[in-house]
Every structure is written in structure tokens, then in C-alpha cells.
Amino acid sequence: MWSIKQDYHASGAIEVFETEGIPVLVVHGGRYPQAESDDGRSTRDVPHILISVWGGTDNETRFFSGVSVSVMGTWHRGFRRAMKVFEDVVYGGSRREPTPDA
User: Fold this and answer.
1) Backbone angles phi, psi at 61, to 5 degrees
2) Which of 16, 28, 39, 83 could form a disulfide with 2 if both were Cys (CB 3.0 to 4.6 A apart)?
3) Are the C-beta atoms of 72 and 80 separated by less than 8 Å?
């Protein structure tokens, strides 16, 4: 069972789960909290899937602007091997339709 490490970055987490032995961390875009398993593993140390959901708020209305999926691999010479698998993000915009009176 995985859970979000309760520290300063915890608010960036949406969900964490494991599928076929691989941890999947779902976060708010631009945030990267750490998740830990009951057996002591951590997303800081083990390969995992990172799903970032991009969006925000505008006058207290939440909006969605995209999603990206990355595979976070092992560490090599001080750098984490990572590969972006999918991205569909509208930077500086949103997927909201304008209201008819706008």
C-alpha cells in the first residue's frame, strides 16, 4: 500500500497507487511530492509512473488545461532517467469553452 509522504510537498499529490508492481503517482502539474510504501520503498528511489494533471483556478472556478505522463526510471551518475510518454497540455490556456456572452 502506498501513501503520500506528509511534508511540505504533500499538497501537490492527487493520488498514489500500484499497478502490476509499479507505483503510479498522480500530481498537480509542476509539483512532485514523494510517496512511500508500507515496505519502505519510495518514489524517490524506485522507478515509477508520474501523471501530472495541469490546470488551476480562475475566480474560484477550477479549470483543466492538460495532462502529461512520464516514466521515472533509475538514477545514473546523479541524474534520474526519465521519459515523457504522453503530453497534451495547453500552456497559458485552458480547455474551457468561453461562455456565450463572452
Assistant:
1) -105, 125
2) 16
3) yes
